[in-house]
Amino acid sequence: MGQGYSITRAIDQPYEVALDAVRKALIDQGFGIVTEFDVQASFAKNLKVEVPPQMILGACQSALAYQA
Questions:
Q1: CA distances in angstroms from 36 to 2, 11, 23, 56, listed in the order given
Q2: Which of 5, 24, 58, 59 has the most CB atoms in a 10 Å sphere around its CB?
Q3: SS3 content of the chain, % helix, strand, coil (to 5)
Q4: How far apart are the C-alpha atoms of 15 and 17, rounded to whole Å?
Q5: Side-chain-side CA neighbours of residue 59 (13 Å)
Q6: How far apart are CA 36 and CA 55, in angstroms?
Q7: What are residue 35's DSSP bridge partners?
Q8: How far is the C-alpha of 56 from the C-alpha of 61, rounded, in Å?
Q9: How many Cβ atoms sit within 10 Å of the Cβ of residue 40?
Q10: DSSP 8-state code for residue 18
């Protein structure tokens, strides 16, 4: 079985406030948000299960991507 990797942080802010702060921080550092995947909505629709709110943001800094 594959090995899982994750980074977690506990913060004392409502979900929407934290999500907006992450979006702003990425943009402030020159990243564009190219994809957003709402895990909670997808699980509810496709699996009929409830999970806490979670968002996967796909971020890219075009200049660095071009260099790579």
A1: 25, 21, 11, 6
A2: 59
A3: 45, 20, 40
A4: 6
A5: 15
A6: 7
A7: 58
A8: 17
A9: 15
A10: H
Q: Is 38 helix (H, G, I), strand (E, B) or coil?
A: strand
- In the block, residue with structure tokens 């409830």: 50
56 and 37 Cβ atoms separated by less than 8 Å: yes
The torsion angles phi and psi of 35, rounded to 5 degrees, stand at -145, 150
pTM of the model: 0.78
Bridge partners of residue 36, in order along the sequence: 57
What span, in angstroms and rounded, lies between the C-alpha atoms of 20 and 28? 12
Give the number of other Cβ atoms within 10 Å of residue 22's Cβ: 15
Computed over its alpha carbons, how large is the radius of gyration of the chain? 15
Residue 52: both structure tokens together? 């806490």
